[in-house]
Write a structure and sequence with these properties.
Layout lengths: L9 E12 L2 E13 L4 E5 L6 H8 L7 E6 L4 H6 L3 E4 L11 H10 L13 H7 L15 H13 L5 E5 L7 H18 L2 E5 L3 H7 L2 E6 L4 E7 L14 H14 L3
Parallel strand pairs: 3-7, 3-8, 5-6, 6-7
Antiparallel strand pairs: 1-2, 1-4, 8-9
Helix pairs in contact: 3-4, 3-5, 4-5, 7-8
Length: 260
């Protein structure tokens, strides 16, 4: 269980991000407030251009806030990044084609500063088993399906034992059956690891199925429309999507998106 005095995993207060170019200034995020407890699962939902990916990059210390404050694990995002307490999974698995699945998972351990070894750290081999790829350690990326490649990408993101996992539409390009399977796998991994997850998606059912809460963002500029609780008990079988409460939450999110 999380200690009551543990710092928030993510805290944004009045966070604003503006990008400037020769054509003028664009406000990607405007006055965003968000508090994510340790071990939480928050999905970001909204139309294209509402700043979902920018919010992830703000937390990851890849873009700075123009105004407002950003705290990650009780300190500046830079500290969390330098301490390798953040993992990032993109829509494309971005695996090195000449390295096996196991070698791709090991990659973060071979580059950058080394984290101090701790008792109980999962090895790359254990992480491949965790994501359901036992026996495929030696497979090259082209020998794996799209869903398997995303599993490798998740294992690679977890190999440094990050406290926060940032996921930018990781299952968006997959077929529905594979996506459903990986949704179930991700919930299992989240429950086993206790990692805080911020998850970007365009899918309302995916957001409701996975999340404790869904942050709905409006566009022009990107801003908070509503933070919606998904009060469905875990573990969640796929059949939960047929329940009245699931349908009610999904309908509310759909109505919100129509006004974004």
């Amino acid at each position: 269980m999380t200690s009551l005095d543990a710092p928030l995993a993510v805290e944004l207060e009045g966070a604003t991000v503006r990008f400037s170019s020769e054509r003028g200034s664009v406000t990607a995020l405007d006055n965003v407030a968000l508090r994510v407890p340790p071990g939480g699962f928050i999905s970001l939902l909204g139309p294209s251009g509402c700043g979902k990916s920018t919010l992830l990059r703000l937390v990851a210390d890849l873009v700075p806030a123009t105004h407002g404050s950003v705290s990650v694990l009780g300190g500046p995002p830079e500290r969390a990044r330098l301490n390798r307490e953040l993992g990032f999974v993109f829509q494309d698995a971005t695996l090195l084609p000449w390295r096996s699945a196991l070698e791709n998972v090991r990659l973060p351990l071979e580059v950058g500063p080394k984290k101090r070894a701790r008792p109980g750290l999962r090895t790359p081999e254990e992480l491949l088993r965790l994501v359901g790829l036992a026996g495929r350690e030696d497979a090259l990326p082209h020998e794996l399906s799209g869903g398997m490649r995303q599993r490798v990408a998740i294992a690679r993101a977890l190999v440094s034992e990050p406290r926060i996992l940032l996921m930018d539409e990781p299952f968006g390009a997959l077929d529905e059956i594979t996506r459903d399977t990986l949704n179930e796998e991700l919930l299992r991994i989240w429950r086993e690891t206790g990692t805080t997850i911020l998850f970007v998606t365009h899918s309302i059912p995916e957001a409701v199925f996975l999340s404790e809460r869904v942050l709905v963002l409006a566009t022009n500029p990107g801003r908070v429309r509503e933070l919606v609780a998904c009060e469905l008990p875990y573990p969640r079988p796929l059949s939960v999507r047929e329940t009245p409460e699931f349908i009610r939450i999904a309908s509310h999110l759909r109505a919100l998106l129509q006004t974004c």
